[in-house]
Amino acid sequence: xKQAEARVGELRATIDRKKIRAPFxxxxxxxxxxxxxxxKGGDPxxxxxxxxxxxVNFTVPQQEVGKVRVGGGVRVSFQGMAGAELAGxxxxxxxxxxxxxxxxxxxxxxxxxxxxxxxxxxxxxxxxLGAGSPIVALPASAISYAPYGDSVFIVExxxxxxxxxxxxxxxxxxxxxxxxxxxxxxxxxxKAGEEVVSSGAFKLRNGAAVRVHNxxxxxxxxxxxxxxN
Length: 229
Description:
Distance between the termini: 73 Å
Strand content: 25-35%
CATH superfamily of the domain at 54-127: Efflux pump adaptor protein, beta barrel domain
Radius of gyration: 29 Å
Structural class: mainly beta
Number of strands: 12
Number of helices: 1
Helix content: under 10%
């Protein structure tokens, strides 16, 4: 009788060793093996993903790194998202600037209690920097980029050599800030309310006469959502 019990205990121990237990709590995907299939060490059985918490990796330009700090807030959204933006916090900032892109890698952590975020998703991240200051933002098509300086063309009344006035343009050099979507921030050189040429600026020269035609507007969305083909 004792030998039989020992044999049963040995078989149970062998069966327990053949049970596969997840190393952490998570969500299982589609299994990659079939019943009765022989496995060897290291064979994948089923993907397992931890969703709570979940990490979001994104980059920020090197000139903005000084504003990013561990513990700061981050909001994310994604295409087709239902409900409000998800809030998380920055948990790590890389110490190295990517020499190719001049960006710095940042990692944020989200509790993801409702499970809306999944590994591999593409999201749009916004770092919360506190109260902002008013800026002048223009569509990127309004900027004339050049090695000697970036500029815009301001529409105003211009006086011709014969003393007559006409609607023309004045080239104004500006200092640019960051960009978001289709918009570019102008730090200096332009005042709010000034009329600016928003498209076709590359065809103009200082003092050129123009006729304003606003029926066709360039894209000017701070958060554009490209449509799938």
